[in-house]
Amino acid sequence: MDFEDVEIGERADIGTHAFTRDEIIAFARRWDPQPFHLDDEAAEASQFGALCASGWHTACTWMRLNVEDGARRIGEAVAAGRPVPRIGPSPGLFDLKWLRPVYVGDTIAYSWTVTDKRASKSRPDWGLITYHAEGVNQDGVTVISFNGRFFLGRREAG
Amino acid sequence: MDFEDVEIGERADIGTHAFTRDEIIAFARRWDPQPFHLDDEAAEASQFGALCASGWHTACTWMRLNVEDGARRIGEAVAAGRPVPRIGPSPGLFDLKWLRPVYVGDTIAYSWTVTDKRASKSRPDWGLITYHAEGVNQDGVTVISFNGRFFLGRREAG
Questions:
Q1: Which residue of B has its CA nearest to A145?
Q2: pLDDT tens-digit readout, B54-99
Q3: E-strand spans in chain A?
Q4: Considering the entire predicted model, what is its pTM?
Q5: CB contact under 8 A, B89 and A54
Q6: Nearest CB to B64: which of A32, A71, A97?
Q7: Interface pTM (ipTM) of the complex?
Q8: For residue B158, is it within any domain?
C-alpha cells in the first residue's frame, strides 16, 4: 500500500487486547507507578474505584497492534509480488484522550481510520497520512482516542 | 502542593535518562517492533540512519520520571507534616511532537512547565492543571514535547 492507494475514510480493525491484572501492574511498575495502577486497595480509594491500566499502557497497546497489522500488510504485499510499502517516521499525535478507565478483564478493540492525506512539501517522494485511532471496550465504550500522522512512500515523486 | 499552590510558569526538571541499545530494543520488541527500533542495519538503511528509540519509549520515560518526581514531592509533604496532594486522573494530551530521533547513548533531560490552571466546573473540589512537557538531548535539542492536563485536589471547594 503506497501513498497513492490510501483512501480517506479507509478503516482498519487492528486487533483486540484483554488487559490482565498482571500486565497492568507490570506496565505500571516500569512506566507509570501510580498507586491506582499498582494496588487494588489504593485503586478502590481513588477516583477510579478499581485497579485500572495506565493510559500509556492502553496507548502502547494500540501501537503494538498497529505495527503487527502493518507487518501483516507488508507480508501480503511480498507474497503477492507487490512492492513493499515504505513506512516512515511519525511527526507526532494530537488530541490524545483517555476517555474512560481500562479495568482488569476489559477487552479493547483497536482501530484506525484515515482522515486526511497530503503530499509532503519537503520530501517529494513521501506523503503524509493523518488517521484517527480508537480503542473501544467490550461494552462499546470508547476508552482512548487520538489523531496521528505518519509518512508513507509515494510511487511517483510529486 | 495543592491546586492553590501551583503557579503558572512554574517549572520542574524531573530528571535525565540515558537511552541504551538494550533498553531501546527491549521496549521496541514489546511495544513498537519496527525495524529501525530493533536492528542496526535496518536502521542505517532507514530515514533515521541509526538505531533509535520508539517515540512511545521517549514519552513513557517522561511519565516514569514525572511519577517519581511526584512521589518525591509527596514524601517531602509527609515529612514536613503538610497535607498530601491529591493527584487525579489525566484527561489526555495534545500536540505530542516527536521532533528528533533519540539514538543509542543519547541522554534526555525531561521537564514540565505549568501553562494554565483552572477550577473544574464539574468537580468543585478539583482543579485542572495544564503543562508543557519537554525532553531535550545532550546537545540542547528538543526531541519530544507535548501538552497535557491532570486533575489536582483543591483545599477549598470552589
A1: B92
A2: 999 999 999 999 999 999 988 998 999 988 888 888 999 999 999 9
A3: 11-18, 92-98, 107-119, 126-136, 142-153
A4: 0.94
A5: no
A6: A32
A7: 0.94
A8: no
